[in-house]
Amino acid sequence: MLEIEAGFVRAYYLFDVADTIDLRGISTLAGEGLSPAEFPLRPHTSSAYLQFPLPPLVAHLPEATIDDLRCTVRVKLFDYGVISLRLSFVAKGTWDELAALAERVRTDVSVAGFAAATGSHICDEIAGALDDRHEPLIEDYFAIEIDRFTQSVDARELLERHGAALACTLLGENVPLSDSETEEALRVRFSYTPDDLTLVQWDTAFVYDRGDSARAIEDILEFANSQLLELRTYDALLDRELDSIYKMNPRSSSGSLRGRREAEQAETLRYLLVDVLELIDRSSNALKVVGDAYYARIYRAAAKRLGLAQWQRQIDSKLASVNDMYRYFSDRARARRDEFLELVIIALIALELLVGIAELVRLH
User: What residue ranges do the domains of the chain occupy?
Assistant: First the structure.
């Protein structure tokens, strides 16, 4: 079996905690300084290939011990309301030891509990920078990063000789998988050189690469998961708002004479549409993968594994329903106002006739 000389098991816990985070209003976190996040790209790659219009802020917190596991702690703050907590556990030794560590990190409630408590403390510390703070929605992701093995191994050998072990570790299985399931687990893979390999699953990734490049790939996977978290947040928001819309009972004949109630309902829906579209635009445009084809392919593969397109279509469908209801209430408010104006005109004509008749009676 393979022996790992240097590697990590990284656990990412992402929390959607607010509509936005004012990054300019935060200078320190837990006594540690914050700095703009940068992608550690391959030497040939221009920094223009990966762009953040407003770079997230990163802080490295003191090391922590969770039961008997020691880990480093890194926090990343995204301006669209997401806090990402990364716990890194050193991995070395046999492949079985790596698999056991990865399984423990993924399933140990103490690890998840530590992450949740840390996320809550961070929210409390930066509460002044949170716009419209809400109960956190959480997404987790795990990455197995191997910098080097004790012996020289290339991507082809990893797949051909150790593919079954790779697949089991990625899926967290302790029993051998079928050939078809193994192939499916290893299907989404990338190698830039013969000596590196990246495998992407929906909740776990395996990255065999040198330092900075591995970090760039994991940052892209982290960003894709932050987008998934945002889409889940918007979907839940739209579900709540649609429930409220249905409670408005739009088919009811009741309403204000001048259409004020309908106009207020339409205005509420208009603000909802604007807010959701603005938040979606903020998160979707937070990272531009504009030039490097290799990193762009990894991002697209992660987005597909996470089902971002399906989430977006679901949200678009709900936004269309909200937009239809907005138009309905707007039209109904306009019709109510028109009816009211017609009544006013009829009343004025009637009043004018009464005045005329009264004048004639007086003259005779």
Answer: 3-224, 227-359
